Model the fold of this input.
Amino acid sequence: MARHLYNKIEQQQAPAFFVRGPSPFARLAFFSVLSLALMASDSRLQYLASMRQSLQTLLHPLQLLANAPTQLYLNTTEYFSTHDSLLSENQQLKKRDLMQSIALQKLNLLEQENAHMRVLLAAQVALKESSVAAEILHVGRDPFTRKVLINRGQNHKILPGMAVVDAAGVIGQVTRVYPLSSEVTLITDTSLAMPVQIERNGLRAIAFGHGRDSTVDLPYLPANVDIKRGDRLVTSGIDGVYPAGLAVATVKQIVSAPDTPFARIVYVPAGGVENHRQVLVVSKPQLGSISAPSLTEPVKLGLNQAKPADKKQSMPNKSAKPAKSSDAHAR
Amino acid sequence: MPVNKLKTLYFSVLLAFMSLLLPWSQAALLVRPDFMLLVLIFWLIRAPNLCNVGTAWMLGLLVDLAAGMVFGQYALAYTVTAFFAVTYQRRLVLFTGVQQLLYVFSLLLISQVMLLIIKTFAGGQFIGWLYFLPSLSGVMLWLLAMGLGLNTGGRGRAN
Done:
């Protein structure tokens, strides 16, 4: 078959009027094999990771140049935004600041109390995490995956496996780190899994991205599972990657599916997975690395009531797990 | 003249690459034509002595890098497309405008189908028929370029 095709093509160009080197078919075969070899070595053997890093660094200035017009436009519109809108925004922010500072005060009190209790119980000290603010450079260009590029990288001490959150909840995890930027896989990508908990009853599960539409899946939950419309999913924190208690998604719809033994439920991500620019990269929770409480979300407060019930189960693996699980989730 | 043409070629490739790097999002990302492939097809048709299947492969690698994908995916898709473009390049002189458009459209489709096959092998999910929009918008862009007076070869044109 290939030979026949080859002959046919040869005939087409039979009288070589100009010398043009090897025939297109030979070139096709050569470069196809080369591409396949590249694909195999990149995806399976990971030989090209360092090369990609250096090439990406060379590309970075070009990327910034390409982003410049949009940046300029944003800056200009910001500059010319009217007095009124600024005032109202300021007022809103003040209001939110007030509410959050009240929540924060409560949080500090509760944290102190919690630490005290833990000492009394001779339990391990709760894990702490630090964070780096970042901005999204652009969304991924591959239509088959859900990824974004952020403007913080190796030079800013970003490590693969760190969680990325915005004001409303978790948006993803850092999967590739370049010197000046890093790639974040969003929670709606099929390859990302994260351990979650239903806020209302503490039920634990693992959430996967759905891929096609921007929703999240909780596969393999029994059909009679205790989940209601409007329930909130939060990170459970037992993986040692994500800080506990960050909002992940809310239940949007429960589909009755008599054909499967599993529940079919549609979850919508809580974080603005596709519409925020500013994000926070949160390091893996570590013992002892004390920093100012990085996340001032009221979510954390709500969870404290649900926690004592599962403390016993989650404590023993906390110390053993963190090293391993970071890689497993990135895959 | 070749030097001058070569300069134009490099410049157009750089321009295509820059427009690829623009921060596209949401709907714009869905309809964004494959600038790099369009430029490549243009040069494969117009100056087959300057670029060939190997050029397509190199440009494909560049796009792979920019897209943050596994190396070799766009490279393979572009290589196959370039093969078809080069093979039928000499017939193009006889094509009318509409025929040329169809030809370009099928080339764009070949590249997208190749990419879809590779991605499906790698475990990706088909995102629906909207996936093929870039081919359509690419042809529109080609038509626009022709309308603006770009000489893309073909019958009734001074070569």
User: Anything to note?
Assistant: Helices of chain B lie at 2-21, 26-31, 35-46, 53-67, 73-87, 97-121, 133-147. The mean pLDDT of chain B is 85. The two ends of chain B are 14 Å apart (CA to CA).
